[in-house]
Amino acid sequence: MTIATPLLGALVVLVVGMASERLMKWIAVLVSVAAGVFALKLLFSIPAQPPEGYFWIPGIAVQIGFNLTGLGVWVAAIAGCVGALAVIFSLKYMESEEAHYPPTRYYFFTVLFIGSMIGLALTDNLLILYLFWEMIGFCSYILIAYYYRDPKAVRAGTKALIVTRLGDVGLLAGIIVLWQATGTTNIFEITDLAQRGDIPLFLLSLAGAGFILGAVGKSAQFPLHVWLPDAMEAPTTISALIHAACLVNAGVYLLALTYPLFLMLAWWGPVVLWIGAITALLAGILALIEYDIKRVLAYSTVSQLGFMVAAVGVGGIFASQFHLLNHAVFKALLFLCAGAIVHAIGTRDLRQMGGLGRKMPLTQFCCGIGVFALAGIPAFSGFWSKDQILESVVMAGDLAAVPLIILIIAALLTAAYSLRMYWMVFAGPRPYEKEAHDGPWQMSIPLVVLAAGAMLLWRAVGFYSTQALAGMEIYNLHELTLPQLVHETLASPLLIVTGMIVVLWVVFGISWSKSGKVLSAEGAWADALTETKFGFDAFYRTGVRMITEFCQGLRTWQSGDVNYNAAAAAVGLLILLMLLVTT
Amino acid sequence: MTDLVYPVAILLAGSLVVYIVARVSGSKTLTGAVALIALMLSGYVMYLLSGGEGIGPPVPFKGREVFVSFELNGLAIFMAVVSLGLAAVVALFSIGYMHEKNIGKYYALLLMMTAGMVGIGLAADLFNLFVMFELMSLASFALVAFEDDWEPVEAGIKYLLLSAMGSMVALLGIILVFTHTGKLSLAELQGTQYALLLKPELMLGVAALFIAGFGVKAAIVPMHTWLPDAHSAAPSGISAMLSGMVISAGLITMIKALSVLHGIDLRLVLPALAIITMLTGNLMAWVQTDLKRMLAYSSIAHMGYILAGVGVAFSAPGVAALDGMRGGLYHILNHAIMKGGAFLCAGAILTLIGTRDLKEMAGIGRKLPLVGICFGIFALALAGAPPLNGFISKLFICKAAIMLDPWGFILVVMVIFNSLLSLFYYLPALNKIALAPEMSEKVKQAPDHLPACMVLAIFILALLTIALGVQPQLGLDLVQPAAAFLAGIIQ
Amino acid sequence: MWSAYWITVIFLFSLGIYTLIFRHNLIHLIIGIEVMAKGLCLAVLVGGAQHAGGVFSVSQAIVITIILIEVATTAIALSLVVAAHRHTGTVDVAALRRLKG
After folding, report:
1. What is the ipTM of this complex?
2. Domain residues for A373?
């Protein structure tokens, strides 16, 4: 029901959209809200016995079943709720674009996007998961390239699809290897078999590497993170969806889901941990020097995803999923705030903002809460979950010492860049001169709801942990109630980190108010870094260019000469003869 | 109604009737309608022969002449359904696409070509198979060079010379088998008593002759060189037929011919050829600027995927053989639908703006949203995007390929990686057609409507692309008996 | 099996392939195909003659069919060569190299 609503709803949107655009938009809202409500309902009453699956392709025995464990249901709920809010927000936000770009396409793919993500989270079958996994990829391609009159947007969409598909090569190959090894694609059956040691370690290693590659591509981890910042060319609501609800969470979810499966592999956890830590650090540095407000947020997402991935690497499934939940809420909030700002003043360059606080008090307030949550200021939601992550890395022992240091640095960077962004937008020496104001109610309601969530969601940790545990015995999680969380957090040595963040915050604030200057990286190295972004883009571009040149070389072999063609065929015959005789 | 000659004979008679109708009436709508009726009649007869509901047991048939022998089995029905279906769509499309001039010849040749393909499925002896193969080839030579311009003529000559050479090579193989056994019937040759008459080294030679000979038609690298020229120069409907079905029919012929060689080890050869073929096709397509030429190279890549499935069937025992054959045949079906559709879209665009150059097509998808959307569906299906049909059959192929003993994993990774490579040219093409910032001059001047029959033809294929992806069982019902039959005869 | 017949067959077949690869005149190329086909006709007859019981009559039928197919192929090929000559003014394959890459 939860899956079917948005998927069928998308079809209705498409059909109605041909007739009446106005009606179509309201149906889109209705459908996405319904999906959110269904997902929430599922969350509050997770059925003990998942509903019966049915055969999709009898010929190869692929059974569609449902995965109603806490892990999936939470991800689905996040997708449904954030998705619904984003669609409501779009009503106003996208209005001005409708003259230039077809709205039907926007709402159709948005609803499809949300539906696919819910489907991905609720299935227990790796093949179906892959199917939805690709569908969100293709939806994101079309949505990122929505402003097709801007060549940059089209390029960004193409890049996003190709880079994520690069990861999918590994994922699909991994799924097929597991399928061959176990004869099933049901994730729980495979996990059972793996834990009993029935899958040869070599095959498990192949699959593990493939799954990491898939998750790295989708969740924009090092070294495939390059597509996410470019994807900022999308409409801001879509960015919010991609970052908070639909796209990038899939990779982390996949890693968390398959963590018990690859428990046997000694190398799997550390590799995941290192990937996460390196990503968190690199993206944090890049976020600190970026001037485009949406790109700052994008790098911040990459960085936060690095935290989540690292947590999975040391077995902190709960911490990672808890952070995923919190991150979804505050990142959606930040993106919608950024959307409201961009909508109001029409630029994304941080240097042209400043002093907006007086014009847009509501946005400032909501954005402030989001920034506090992101920075990990105590008592906001991000603080608790990030602390959980660091704690789980600490518990992993000496092996994780270097990643732990990297992660702590990254946490400090998080505080630095988020506050920098906040100052540059809302404070600043001079008030913003042109006209600007808060958005209408369609834009404000989602902001307020999300802000409340970012502030209070951590109090629901008890509920979250009990629900997240449902049906997840194999994950070895322990329940965590609110007092325990508070106690654990306050008792941990990592409080020092929190303290440092607070100190940084204060110093930062004072230095700004005294000098009126905004801390930002200046100088040639920063510019160079902003330009090159550690050279990953250049690296991939060179790769693609080399293949293109190779292809151009290959073309000369197609000379168009009949004699030559006949000779090629004759040589083919000779080679075949030789091959057959020698084998 | 037991005479298996009828489905082929109706089409051949139909081609005569169509030609006369065109000469008498001169109307292309009427001619097209008659051709459609002939195709449907042939399909109906096929349906009656198969026992009315689905696929009955194999019905052997010996004709009046010594070597006309047909057999009705799952494969014959598969070939008939796919080639008649695609031919019907192409016939519908061509009513709008072709000019009045020479329309009779066009439809007559189209029906002949289809008759050859139906015959390949039905043929029950080696020489009969070869004759049907040649019937299809001859019609296609004439169709490639149908328009009298330097480009079709040049492509036609290259296609003809290469194909004729390939046919001769394959015929040499058939004759060697005949010389040593004195038999041509597939069923008899597949029996064990004749297997002993062929010495192992002779079998290897014959296998090489079959693969190289029929491989010219099936566009296996390095025998593929004629394909990009012929497929891009032919009228678009014919390109759809050629890419969608003719090259696959060449491969089916090859499988049927290879089935007479017992216990031959193609473990290394076919998968290796598959990998080379898909890589070459994709890499060459990467740098094309001509839409139809790009699609033609992509056909080579898709023959590589199909060959991967078929190669597994030849290399692995039991279940894997069935799975591989099923994957290969299902991909033939899907490729016919999606590549046929993509070529028809290219044809529609060609009609509107008169060029095949991708650069000049900017924004055509916005001028004609239906063509743009359908091309998007076909391109994504060709690139293997779920839940469209191309993904499902590639999944089947991978599923079977992993069972290939020594290097199945490499084959799987190559298939998936090649799907990624294909995105590198499908996405830019799609961006150009549907997401270009500005419409090009030619597009601005283009008319904004198409004949209804062209739109309908494209729409049918797009619908099938989605339907077979969401509900693969529809296609599997058709493919399963054919795969079971083929997997049975190659053991 | 290595009789004079088979040597002739192999000679004709190789000659055809040689022609296709090394000659530049379109008419020569078509003759090359024809030569291959004639070699195969001989092969069918030689092969059929080795067996008893009506196999040879099958060979005869096959030969006629091969000739039929060859005639059709040649007819189409020659018409294409005429068309090519009209467009390029020559029957040299060097004039047919515009489609490439």
Report:
1. 0.95
2. 266-457+499-519
